[in-house]
Amino acid sequence: MSESFSYKAAIVQVDFSKRKKGLSSINAFEEFKELVTSSGADIFYEDLSNQFKPDSGLFITKGKAERIKDFIDQTESELVIFNHDLTPSQERNLENIFKARVLDRTGLILDIFAARAFSHIGKLQVELAQLSHLSTRLVRGWSHLERQKGGIGLRGPGETQLETDRRLINQRIKSIKAKLNKSHKQREINRYSRNKSDQTLIALVGYTNAGKTTLFNLLTESELYAKDKLFATLDSVTRKSSLAGLDDVLFSDTVGFISDLPTELIESFKATLDELKSADILLHVVDISDPDFIFKTDQVELILKELGVSEIPCIRVNNKSDKVSKDLNNISNSNDEVWLSATKNRGLEDLIKCIQSNRKKSMVKEWVELEPSEGKTRAKLYSLGKVIEETTSESGLIQLLLEIDEKELKTLVSKKGINLKIKKIKEAI
User: Fold this and answer.
1) 136 lies in some domain
2) pTM of this prediction?
């Protein structure tokens, strides 16, 4: 599916009696409709119903399937999209009844990602996710899959087309992973260079369509594509801050999260999301006007925990505050929470103060010992204003009390000839 084409679609959501905790039924359906329209499809029929439990063969009941088929025939819909994950056999059985293509939630999200990925790396990551998903779905009803096939270049006489397809997919997956790994190593080099330059990296994270890119453009005077629709941003972009007082800060815009994000996507985008691990501060952008913002906030925090970045200092940015009935003048911002409106350019000063405050939190006081031969390092530390006190040990070692960023300290003590004087003397400021 591509945004350049329009498809007539029927959409289906079933609420089961034992529904898992999450978005309310209506809001989940609204988010689903937004996903569908974001994909480029036109909704001609909506089916929101209740059911005790999923049917093993069709997911929905046979009566419900027949009812949907009648509407598909009336509207001449070419596509039926479920707001659920379907098994390959369920997809095949439903297609036989509907005589139309069936797509589940994972397939829909993968398709949207495919349409929105513009960079070479982004396209590779999406392709990897699609192939991982497809590899479990090679049982679709293509007649050629049942035929035996032999000949030159195949694994052996009697290899089925199904086996051939699976082997070719696995080969392509291996090739893409190798390319992504090479790109990942290059990113590591870039991050190392940035760390050496003592620049602070701040990554913007949040639920999709929370306003991350709009805020990013405001912070960096960029003109990245920002639109009020799901997954408008897929490729991570890093730019230097354009704000006074944050001259040495880099901001990174990242892909938005969503509830029930396909596992294939999380895995394939980990190389991009690894950028978060090197961030000094996270800005968790929340659409505070969204009725389900609490649930969506929790979903983002769960994904951050899964990615292993939940310990990084995080500032919650309550965006779109112009859409809520609160007097912002009476709202007290804190060191880890700010209210603003990126579109109205309100609250930016408070965000700058909050970032500056959190940057200080990463500073520590620590004694280090330098070999007498490390005179250049000593002079450099003095020129940067890092040294608070200096003594000399009985053995002639130079002892310095530093007020320094924790990351800088780790880089410093990794050098030969420089050691921490006392391992557990660290005092957070």
Assistant:
1) no
2) 0.67
